[in-house]
Amino acid sequence: MKFLVADDHGLIREGLKLQLQALEPDAEVFEAASFEEVNAQIAAIDEVDLLLLDLGMPGGDGMRSLSQLCNRYPEMPIVVVSGAEQREVIEKAIDLGAAGYIPKSMAMNVMMNAIRLVLSGGVYLPENLLRGTPSNDESPMARAEEAPEPLTQRQVDVLCLMCEGLANKEIARELGISPHTVKIHVAAVLKALHVDNRTQATRKADRYQLCADN
Hints:
Elements: E1 2-6, H1 10-23, E2 28-32, H2 35-44, E3 50-53, H3 63-72, E4 78-82, H4 87-96, E5 100-103, H5 108-119, H6 127-130, H7 140-144, H8 153-163, H9 168-175, H10 179-193, H11 198-207
Parallel strand pairs: 1-2, 1-3, 3-4, 4-5
Helix pairs in contact: 8-10, 8-11, 9-10, 10-11
């Protein structure tokens, strides 16, 4: 397993690195201190299994840089690790495609539990900070969103495996097709659901119960 820890504070990178190595003793942990280094590391590493990202690093523009990374690498789970704890910031990060949001004020054991959840295919939100927030189904944006277009059975199969947190290579093995074919199906699914990334697709699939009978 390969982790990329991106933060411009060396002590934070080192602390997260030690915890990740304790979580996955055989894991390789890479580091970046700017958005330029993040892009360089992703290009150099064969496949990043998880990116822990601080939005305040130099060389980028916070949410815009997060959006670019989510769109450029839709298969790579990105967890924002940030000092910002405003509810609207957390919601925006998740809407842009982050697989989780961890405030830096959280205890390290809580952070590691959140990372375990994301690695298992889930999405982590700090519930204590979001308590009282209207659900997606209650928000005006959710009510006004475009409904999914019809999917083929194969696209439904791919979508449901995406919702389980499987990467393209794992979906390919599960369905007995090539990773390239999976990539084509994933692109078609995102287009049919009117979403930009896998996190949004998972949330929309759950909202419309697209995998209920699969």
